[in-house]
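Here is a protein:
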Amino acid sequence: MTMLLDRPGTTLASGAVPVCDEAGLVPDRGVCALVGDRHVAVFRVSGTGELFAVDNVDPFTGASVLSRGLVGATLRDGEWITYVASPLRKQRFDLRSGRCLEDPAEGVDVFEVSVLDGVVRVAPA
């Protein structure tokens, strides 16, 4: 799902771009937003309600699909890692760091996310 506000791509004084209403984010399902010239996948994680934003482009295929990926968590070295799995080849990307869990040499960019007055905002990289 792609969600846009009335004025997509408008940059705020803080540098963040409003991308969608917070109420429109379904837990564990991504939305794609255009932030500057980047396709960004935005997620709200069930349980914690945390918001994450990562590059929507899967580095293994070049397709803009991570917003359609599966959100999950795995226990690794005693730490829970929240990830999104690409719907194409199933590589998992840590939503905090962007690194690929199967191939740490690969990864996606992460973006700062904030909420102001019920609107999710993403800062350009």
